[in-house]
Amino acid sequence: MTYKVVLCGCGAMAKGWLKAVADTPALKDCLTVVGLVDLDRTVAETLSHEFDLGGVAIGTDIDAVLSEAKPDILFDIVVPEARRTVVATGLAHGCHVLSEKPMAVSLAEARELLGLAEIAGKFHAVVQNRRYIAGIRRIRRMIEDGALGRLTGLHCDFFLGPHFGGFREQMDHVLLLDMAIHTFDAARFISGKDPLAVYCQEHNPPGSWYRHGAAANAIFELSDDVVFTYRGSWCAEGSPTSWESAWRITGTIGTLLWDGFDRFEANIVTGTDGFFREVTPIGVPIPANEADIHGHASVIGRFLAAIRTGDRPETDGSDNIKSLAMVFGAIDSARHGKRVTIAA
């Protein structure tokens, strides 16, 4: 089956979406871009030329383009402040909607979008593309297999110094709101647990080129007595971690380390005496499904599969709102200097 797609928001991030489709035969064969929308028409026209999308509807008014193109799916790649209007318009036109993160600019808005999707009988999902990489999938499988015993903790470090320029350097809570949701969502997915509460300290270190909130430290309480700790900075020069963070996963009988790149180390206790029990290295399993390790392409593929089967996609808004709640819980905790209960 072929699906017609309109893409709204034709800036730099849109290229990643279209490249994922163009480079993945299974997606290219079943998706046809029929419209582009951007506040700057020339930006949409440039994108059309770059990806050889001649003949598509192009405009600055999403309602008009959707009416003309009559797509099955809307790709929403706009700035977060415009998300509510774009998603609501897409759903009103009978489209399934796949959005960039974050799902919304507030939990109230996210809940509203959940309601609109339910009324429309359509899916609204979020591109949490960093779930769909080999490292995350391998850790998830190892925890599901019980190789480390009962899960007790997830601990990660995220330290990078990107100089984006543009809107990010002027954002409030830039690290928590724009980047940390990837790590928070990964922690939820890896652990299979729900967030219950958080204590977070946020600051803007000396020398930061961001206006606000370039660094944060957070302790999350997850269900089943699992703890998730996060240390992060977007103005840490000199020794960068991976974009996926560096992870330590602890269980009742062992520990897994992942550097966020290709290095894994896992050890379980095999000794029965001594001050420190003897440990033995174990392997980290490969992902259960090779189709789930290709970032954007995997997210889009799973979204299309959900439309075909009627099953909710893995990153459906009904699930992703829990990751968004972690972000806003952390922001609320940092603002008030106290532990905050998380309620999606």
From TrEMBL:
Q: Which Pfam families match?
A: GFO_IDH_MocA (PF01408), GFO_IDH_MocA_C3 (PF22725)
Stretches assigned to the Gfo/Idh/MocA-like oxidoreductase N-terminal domain: 4-123
Q: What is this protein called?
A: Oxidoreductase
GO MF terms held by the record: nucleotide binding
Instruction: Please report the stretch or stretches of sequence annotated as the GFO/IDH/MocA-like oxidoreductase domain.
Output: 136-256
Q: What InterPro entries does this protein's entry cite?
A: Gfo/Idh/MocA-like_OxRdtase_N (IPR000683), Gfo/Idh/MocA_oxidoreduct (IPR051317), GFO_IDH_MocA-like_dom (IPR055170), NAD(P)-bd_dom_sf (IPR036291)
